Amino acid sequence: MATTPPALILDLPDEAATQRLAGDIAARLAPGDVIALSGGLGAGKTSFARALLRALAGIADLEVPSPTFTLTQTYAVGGLTVTHADLYRVTDPAELDELGLAEAAEEGAVLVEWPEHAGSRLPEARLTIALAIAGSGRVAEMTGAPAIVGRMARGLAARDVLDRAGFAGARRCRLAGDASARIYERVVSGEASAILMDWPPGAQLAVNDPRRKFRARDVTTFIAVDAALHAAGLSAPEILAADTERGFLVLEDFGDERVAVDGAPTDERYAVAIDALAALHAAPRPQVLPLAAGAAHRLSLLSGEVLLAELDLFADWYVPHVRGAPLAADARAELTLLWRSLDERLLRSEQSWVLFDVQSVNLLWLPARSGIARVGFIDFQDMFVGPSSYDVASLCFDARVDVPAPLAAGLLDRYIAARRAVDASFATDSFRDAFAIAAALRTMKNMGAFARLAETGKPQYLRHLERLSRYLSTALSRPVLSPLALWYERHLFS
Asked: FRET partner for 126 with CA separation of 20 to 30 A, picked from 240, 246, 260, 482?
């Protein structure tokens, strides 16, 4: 049973402090959240709700009328649907049944003034913010369910590192994140902006995820890899401030312009990205990266049990999604044997740094820079040492956008030409084999990951499966993968 966290008592000496707290809460608001705003007349409930909605919208003068007479008002702000309810005139909690607050909480977030008028009809898993007049300002007391209180408390704690980075009082906006436990925000102060990474230590993957022991667990790994990529000549975000103990980083803001435009890859930008990978792989790279105070981060090897843990996603989630039944034990054992053999071939191929998630969502376009620096890399904290073909395959078979076959083939040719320009002995045929193997692994892993996300409440990921199936068919056409192609045909389509 979760322990009820202690109340958070916050002094709000002026209206600016109230607005700042509302902005901090807004940056952590998520679908399903219910915020109960309690306090007497004039305590500032509506002012707080108005500031929160304006922070979400990023519009300082957004019109937010009090819903005292309409009871509810709905806003589509910051990528979130928020229902603002004022229950002052509610005399019977049964009246709430007609307001649809339960449905509103399923679709978005809900702000409720005068929550005591709701009786027991508000969910227990809510955040209560009690406001009271205190001198010329206010005091706020935050209580509620451990999960939401903890999330909001981390949002408030991040202010310390933001202040040190020169973003005291900055406006905060939550960004769409990845499928991990990390939270990202854009913080803006005047003309300056930065990205806040909130990564609770040890919270990268679920405890029962077999990949957990192979993945980065805290911001120190990001710091080590970031410095290494800078030294290698790649554009990785500058670290403006860090709180490694609590898991906060303030990073350079690369903006929002990506290598894919309107959901489609651009030839020039993908070409620069492939050039960056060729430059990265053209020189020897160490397995041990330095950290502060003489410490070091040793990169894991992308081989053996690490690859099999990735492949488990395909067997555990994609196969049941397609077949409606688990993969038979003998078929799974055969798949494992096939992959152990292919893993041996990958081990014999060229090894380098593997950023591990080189795809459109993690590649920013920086037109003011030159050469390979025009592509900014993010989300690289899980970097391994492994087959250099892996990241090339990740880019050419981008899981999030359709990369036409001619473009993918051209990118692979461009990479090989760049490598041969530096080293005429670069083994083209063996690299193409390693590329196909890595492409199959990466694609099968993504098929499983997306099927799992869909099964656990994120059906939007299913839209990627048709694309991934096409990619896998292309990879399996390489003769080196004929045994795997036969297994795939026999166990998924027979």
From this structure: 246
Euclidean distance between CA atoms 259 and 186, whole angstroms: 20
For residue range 209-227, what is the model confidence (pLDDT) as tens digits? 666 677 888 899 999 999 9
CATH 3.40.50.300 fits 8-144, yes or no: yes
Report the greatest alpha carbon distance in the chain: 83
Locate the domains of the chain by residue range. Answer: 8-144, 167-253, 257-492
For the cut 60, the answer to whether the pLDDT of residue 207 exceeds it is no
**CATH architecture for residues 167-253:** 2-Layer Sandwich (3.30)
Q: What is the pLDDT of residues 274-331, one digit of tens each?
A: 999 999 999 999 999 999 888 899 999 999 999 998 899 999 999 999 999 999 999 9
Look at residue 210 in the predicted model and tell me its pLDDT: 64
**C-alpha to C-alpha distance for 364 and 397, rounded to whole angstroms:** 17
CATH of domain 257-492: 3.90.1200.10
DSSP letter (8 states) at residue 3: P
Amino acid type, 15:
E
Residue 239: strand pairing partners: 251
Q: What does the pLDDT look like over 142-156, one tens digit per residue?
A: 999 898 998 899 999
Q: What is the pLDDT of residue 206?
A: 57
Of the listed ranges 33-37, 202-206, 264-268, 455-459, the one predicted with least confidence = 202-206
